[in-house]
Amino acid sequence: MKKAEQTRQFIIEKTAPIFNMKGYAGTSLSDMTEATGLTKGSIYGNFEDKDAVALAAFDYNARKVQEVMRREMDKHDTIREKLLVYIHVYENFEKFPFPQGGCPLLNTTVDADDTHPELKTRVAGVVQGMKDRLTGLIEEGKRRGEFRQDLHAEQAALTLIATIEGFVMLSRLKSRVHDLKLVTRSIEEMIRKF
């Protein structure tokens, strides 16, 4: 890796947790310079502007989540077990190399809702990729005979995403452990009924 690429990567790695915790609007240039130890000129010498840093930071955080999911899924043989990984990782995210600040999809979706169209588009792309992966897994489960043949794969995938992200939202609100366990059980039951 060339020095410029190393510097860019360093900036991304150091600012990604800040963007994930404080959001786009809440992250200031001074937050970025403090986290990296670099000057404004160094940061903007490697990135066009704050938007470019935010997009790269989101991509970095999203990749971290995808890598955790892939690694954990690879430990299982059945499609059902692979789908259950989603809830178990989110339920115990502190045990995994998860982005600081929690789920970047939920955090960034809320943060970029109407204030940052390009970031919102980037999040939508990641959610679409997640939906496509889950739909493919569910279709594979149907082919293997693990799931009902009448199961609508895309609908099931979207329901899983929405329910898991709702679980993440409740956990961020520091909901009662009992409430979170109820949601966990509901997701597990849903997957077991596929």
Automatic annotation (TrEMBL):
<dbReference type="InterPro" id="IPR009057">
    <property type="entry name" value="Homeodomain-like_sf"/>
</dbReference>
<feature type="DNA-binding region" description="H-T-H motif">
    <location>
        <begin position="28"/>
        <end position="47"/>
    </location>
</feature>
<protein>
    <submittedName>
        <fullName>TetR family transcriptional regulator</fullName>
    </submittedName>
</protein>
<keyword id="KW-0238">DNA-binding</keyword>
<dbReference type="Pfam" id="PF16925">
    <property type="entry name" value="TetR_C_13"/>
</dbReference>
<feature type="domain" description="HTH tetR-type">
    <location>
        <begin position="5"/>
        <end position="65"/>
    </location>
</feature>
<dbReference type="InterPro" id="IPR011075">
    <property type="entry name" value="TetR_C"/>
</dbReference>
<dbReference type="InterPro" id="IPR036271">
    <property type="entry name" value="Tet_transcr_reg_TetR-rel_C_sf"/>
</dbReference>
<keyword id="KW-0804">Transcription</keyword>
<dbReference type="GO" id="GO:0003677">
    <property type="term" value="F:DNA binding"/>
</dbReference>
<keyword id="KW-0805">Transcription regulation</keyword>
<dbReference type="Pfam" id="PF00440">
    <property type="entry name" value="TetR_N"/>
</dbReference>
<dbReference type="InterPro" id="IPR001647">
    <property type="entry name" value="HTH_TetR"/>
</dbReference>
